[in-house]
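Retro notes, item 3 of 5
We never archived the inputs for the 2-phosphoglycolic acid complex last cycle. Fixing that now. Sequence and ligand:
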Amino acid sequence: AIQSVTARRVLDSRGNPTVEADVLLADGSLGRAAVPSGASTGAREAVELRDGEPGRWHGKGVDRAVAHVNGEIAAAVVGRDADDQAGLDAALVALDGTSDKSRLGANALLGVSLAAAKAAAAAHRQPLYRYLGGADARLLPLPMMNIVNGGAHADNPLDFQEFMIAPVGAETFAEAVRMGSEIFHTLRRDLLSAGHSTGVGDEGGFAPALRTAEEALDFVMAAVERAGYRPGADIGLIMDPASSEFFRDGTYVYEGEGVRRTPTEQVDYLAKLIDAYPIVSVEDPMAEDDLDGWRELTARVGDRCQLTGDDVFCTNEELLREGIRTGVGNSVLVKVNQIGTLTEALATVATAHRAGWTVVMSHRSGETEDTTIADLAVATGCGQIKTGSLSRSDRTAKYNQLIRIEEELGDSARDGHGSPGRPPRR
Ligand code: PGA
Ligand code: ZN
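Structure as it came back at the time:
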């Protein structure tokens, strides 16, 4: 049973405070989880409770969320069975009492939810991925590695937020990491010799002062080839335009490029990029409020490109169901803090898989050394993970955890990895 629940504030990768929770069981097992934080958040995400005191932490304090864990939440969950994750999470949701978790804070709830799962895994002497996923949890995810940052994650003029590479030709996770690292360092040299900055953005990818997606994609293509890999066969390209960030009054406003695109022009533009480059997946190609545009793009390219909903679904099972029913994309990004409890995040994964949709487990742009999502990717067998660049410990911590998991699984690891557009075999 749960003996104590405590929280503290720690720093995230942007240097802002965030919640870290500890759950201690009567047998001495400890679970600890730190909560991540987004910058380009969806409007329907569960609420991250911030103190809003201008004189402290620039308003970003989490003292109230921490106090909620140490007070009300601890009082409600001490004595509960940590094995009953669904019961615990339902109790947390009921205790909060709001539909968007704004009273106690999704950051308070998620810290406790994840820490309880980790404590229960420790009590059973199982790694988290096996405790949650059972003996079938043997598939390593294909990593979508961020190598160029723009949008809300960097101070450059690039309108699209993220450009990623996925080593689709890698036979093991460790090989995927090697390929990614080689391309990352090749890109660094290429940027430097072209006179660009090699400083990095929030997710550890480079943030050169490029203006158009084509310029970024051309640099990425050249780096893939110069590193000795075949675009397409070895490396797939992925973008997260994070389009909600530049959708204003019904139009996509490209400030770096200096153009506006109507939803139909946005569809045409993306379809052209998908045809011109070996792009295997695009996340948030259309804005969360442009569902007609989403449907138009899905009908146009959904058969040959994974279209992953982040802001549009916010890891919310109900929003996802509606999207599945109405043809909005074919894949869902899962960020545990968008919904606030582990059980709800797992329900979203299950709903996607039942519909034949793919799932991408994901970090936030504000992260910590916590590696829970690496285990969740293996536990759910979702086959794909997006967790940033090949630099910065907040990102590489997840890759390193997956390297450990692959080593631990040894010969029992399933061959290969997930693929964009293809749901994993069950
Ligand atoms: P966020 O960005 O964590 O800043 O929301 C990540 C993403 O848009 O995928
Ligand atoms: Zn996104």
